[in-house]
C-alpha cells in the first residue's frame, strides 16, 4: 500500500510543494509515496493507506476542486489517513478556511505560505492581488517538518 499526494495548482507552485512532500516522504520515511492528479484519486483510493491533499486558497476560499475530491471520497477516506494542507499568501490560515478543512477530519492539517508570480497571472487574477503580495514565501523547512510529521502519523 502507498500514500498518494495530490494537489490543485493553477500556476504550478503548489505542485512544487506536493512534489517536495513526495520526496521527503520517500527519503526520510521510506514511503511508497507517489503523486497523482486530483481527478485520478478516486480510481486509486482502494489501493492506498493515506491521502495527502494540498490546495491553494483563492480569493479567501480553499480550492473547490480539492474539496469536491475529498467529499466525493469521504466514505473511503474514513478508513484511510487523510492529511490536508492549504497554501496561501496570508501569514496564517484564515479561521473560516480552517473550519472547512477541519470538517474533513484530517489526521493533520497544515498551512504554508505560497508563491505569487505576476508573470503567470491573468489580468483578472492580478486585479485580486496586491503587488506587495508578489513573491515566493514558501518555507521549505516548514514543509519538510510537516511532511516528516505526516510520515510519522501514517503517510508512509
UniProtKB/TrEMBL annotation:
Domain Flavodoxin: 7-129
Pfam families hit by this protein: Flavodoxin_5
Domain of life: Bacteria
Name this protein carries in UniProt: Flavodoxin domain-containing protein
Listed SUPFAM superfamilies: Flavoproteins
Amino acid at each position: 500500500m502507498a500514500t498518494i499526494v495530490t494537489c490543485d495548482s493553477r500556476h504550478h507552485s503548489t505542485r512544487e510543494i506536493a512534489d517536495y512532500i513526495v520526496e521527503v516522504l520517500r527519503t526520510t520515511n521510506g514511503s511508497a509515496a507517489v503523486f497523482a492528479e486530483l481527478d485520478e484519486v478516486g480510481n486509486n483510493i482502494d489501493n492506498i493507506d493515506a491521502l495527502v491533499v494540498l490546495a491553494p486558497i483563492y480569493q479567501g476560499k480553499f480550492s473547490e476542486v480539492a474539496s469536491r475530491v475529498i467529499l466525493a471520497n469521504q466514505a473511503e477516506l474514513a478508513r484511510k489517513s487523510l492529511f490536508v494542507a492549504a497554501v496561501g499568501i496570508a501569514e496564517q490560515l484564515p479561521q473560516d478556511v480552517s473550519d472547512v478543512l477541519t470538517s474533513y477530519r484530517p489526521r493533520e492539517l497544515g498551512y504554508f505560505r505560497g508563491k505569487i508570480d505576476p508573470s503567470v497571472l491573468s489580468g483578472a487574477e492580478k486585479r485580486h492581488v496586491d503587488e506587495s503580495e508578489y513573491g515566493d514565501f514558501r518555507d521549505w523547512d516548514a514543509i519538510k517538518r510537516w511532511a516528516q510529521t505526516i510520515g510519522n502519523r501514517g503517510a508512509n
